[in-house]
User: Fold this.
Amino acid sequence: SAVISQKPSRDICQRGTSLTIQCQVDSQVTMMFWYRQQPGQSLTLIATANQGSEATYESGFVIDKFPISRPNLTFSTLTVSNMSPEDSSIYLCSVGLLHRAGNTIYFGEGSWLTVV
Amino acid sequence: DAKTTQPNSMESNEEEPVHLPCNHSTISGTDYIHWYRQLPSQGPEYVIHGLTSNVNNRMASLAIAEDRKSSTLILHRATLRDAAVYYCILSLQGAQKLVFGQGTRLTINP
Assistant:
């Protein structure tokens, strides 16, 4: 299994500011992912964090708004830039581990952001 | 990604079995069927996955239809801690990113 730690776990942010969320994994993983879960909604994939290269963003998400870093195989950051109340969400880090029977995906506990 | 269809909500009683259905009529031959659940105020957690044969683990069983166009997650004896949103997701072998639908919100009555 993989243990994923996210910081901060919860924060209240002012409109127009930026916040960086950290994701630390207890083992080296090839791929890390960032998801967003808006209130009452399901999870939406933001991007794949690639080690040593630029992140791969899903449709509707752009680097200027959600810059991502991946300096090594156990750590990634997601920045939510120039926040507005619409950015109030849970942001989740995810990794996959390959087993003989296939992949198992693990999630962090999430970072709960409220923008006021 | 192939789409799955689940009921928005289901309700069951504690200590009774729960059968959570999932339809995936456009599933391809290489799609695995994954189930994840999200307990209140937590990130999603893995429950079970399978390809063609029924699967059992300590958390649940997965029954897959012969034509693979539907599957059922079975919780053999529900507890209050099983109250969660359950997601049925199709994913290619080796794929590590998941496309979530709306899932089924399961309520367990004491």
Summary: Strands of chain B lie at 9-13, 18-23, 31-38, 45-50, 55-56, 61-64, 70-75, 84-92, 104-109. Residues 38 and 101 of chain B are 13 Å apart (CA to CA). Chain B touches chain A at residues 32, 34, 36, 42-46, 49, 87, 91, 93-103 (CB under 8 Å). Chain B has no helices and nine strands.
